[in-house]
Amino acid sequence: MTLTLPTTRQEDWRWSDLSALPALAEAGHRGGVIDVHDLWIGCGGPRLLFVDGRYEAGLSDPGPITIGPVGAQSDHPLGSLVTGDGWTLELGRDHAPTGTIEILHVGTGGASHVPARIALAEGAQASFVETYAGEGWANRLTILSLAQGARVMRAIRAIQRGGFVSLRDEAHLAEGASLVTTLLGAGRADSRLDAAIILDGEGAFAEHGGTLLARGKQRHDAAVVLRHAAPGGTSRQVWRAVADDQAAASLAARVEVARDAQRTDGEQSLRGLLLKRSATVNLKPELEIFADDVKCAHGATVGELDAQALFYLAQRGVPPEQARALLTRAFVADALERIGEEAVREVFLDEAATWLGSAA
Q: Which among 43, 67, 348, 316 is positioned nearest to 212, based on CA atoms?
């Protein structure tokens, strides 16, 4: 497979390292016995299992989800590679929630490309939790179309033990629609997380953020664009990044406000924590505003653990490793606690705590 990939000379990709992708694209899937029992959260709703990009019908319960060709196309450099069979969820007007949908992607090496499409009619609701485990290159494209008053909540955890995870979301939100996405990067794979979300309708709401945890020479890279194209929209981007050893975590968050998008409320909160001074956190908040009646703000900070807080805990008998883990967990918690479903939220927090405990 011949790949034409972006380079670090391009501004939108200057923090990304895609050098491993050609070899992953040429490698084969090792296959073998796959034990996924501990990877399911158990939300009680439909569940889909993909192994190396192939749907495993015998271990899935798709409910209202259709498996097969997906009408999803993108001009994104990585998203454009995603073709073939995937999954589609279409819900009609005021469709009752089907329970949280679990989608599990497990890789055994090589590359897999799976498209997805979510189309919700007026007033419909859906909730998803997506997990990426195993190894290899997991490349995904998700197209979302939310009609008036439709609501989607997504929680995504990338816990692959190796390889690369690249996710591309492209969404359009109609009047009063809501899309909330929370991501956790807590594995050992590198990642590139992209999203382009357009608030087409008045009063639409979008939130996109999460927590990225990197160690060794790992690299996480997130690039999100939220565009307000109609009045009265609200957007939030809350990101927390933790980097240890010689790892790098990079966050580029952009808000665009069109001339007619009056009364926009947009907020960005980007914070990075360095566990060692040899690590790197890059933050790039951007606001592009053409309307004159807006409330937009952004904040970006990078630092180390508070020495006074560590001293306070030491004075009360808390061992240094435990103190560092406690403070770091508090740092990332406000991004993950935005997950609406308690069972999912607790799993994500525990996954982060496990990573932080081993980093202490």
A: 348
303-316 pLDDT, tens digit each: 887 788 888 888 88
For residues 341 and 125, give the distance between their C-alpha atoms in angstroms, rounded to a whole number: 14
Cα separations (Å) of 330 from 86, 168, 279?
37, 29, 20
Cβ proximity of 247 and 276 under 8 Å: no
Instruction: Extract the tokens encoding 293.
Output: 């009646």
Measure the CA–CA gap between 123 and 120, rounded to whole angstroms.
8
Cβ–Cβ < 8 Å for 154, 128: yes
Residue 360 has pLDDT above 50, yes or no: no
Rounded CA-CA distance 51/338 in Å is 29
Report yes or no: 116 and 72 within 8 Å, Cβ to Cβ.
yes
Measured between alpha carbons, how far is 88 from 103 in angstroms, rounded to an integer? Answer: 12
Confidence at residue 359, expressed as pLDDT on a 0 to 100 scale: 52
The rounded distance, in Å, linking the Cα atoms of 347 and 186 is 12
Half-sphere exposure of 309 (CA within 13 A, CB side): 12
Q: How many CB atoms are closer than 10 A to CB 317?
A: 8
The model carries a pTM of 0.93
CA distances (Å), 49 to each of 40, 56, 91, 185, in order? 10, 6, 21, 20
